[in-house]
UniProtKB/TrEMBL annotation:
Provenance organism: Vigna mungo
Highest taxon, organism lineage: Eukaryota
Protein name in the entry: Transposase-associated domain-containing protein
One Pfam assignment: Transpos_assoc
InterPro entries reported in the protein's UniProt record: Transpos_assoc
Taxonomic classification: Eukaryota, Viridiplantae, Streptophyta, Embryophyta, Tracheophyta
Stretches assigned to the Transposase-associated domain: 3-75
Length: 112
């Protein structure tokens, strides 16, 4: 998934399109009860927010600069390549790493 839209001014159609693509991806791959961990600079991955709030925050606040691989939103690295976890079983993303599965079980299906 391209991420060049993050550096485009937030009042452009390209930014809005990229933001909607990110939100679609994040909510389908890591959403829990209609919320995701918000990646805006203000929330700093500490608050779970609904789509409407995340959308508004990522327009008003900056997207966290260091967050280049969306580990908390469905991407993962394999041999320095970004891979999207696509297998789902009832909404839960399946991961082969046993430690990640254990962390997911304890912390509501999130692994980083």
């Amino acid at each position: 998934m391209g991420k060049s839209w993050i550096d485009i001014p937030r009042n452009t159609c390209q930014y809005m399109g990229g933001l909607n693509t990110f939100l679609n991806f994040a909510f389908s791959n890591s959403g829990v009860r209609g919320k995701i961990i918000c990646p805006c600079h203000k929330c700093n991955f500490k608050k779970w927010q609904c789509r409407k709030v995340v959308y508004k925050l990522l327009i008003v606040k900056l997207f966290s600069e260091e967050y280049t691989v969306w580990l908390l939103h469905g991407e993962r690295r394999v041999n320095d390549e970004i891979c999207v976890m696509a297998e789902e079983d009832g909404g839960r993303v399946l991961i082969t790493n046993n430690m990640c599965e254990m962390v997911n079980d304890v912390f509501v299906h999130h692994c980083s």
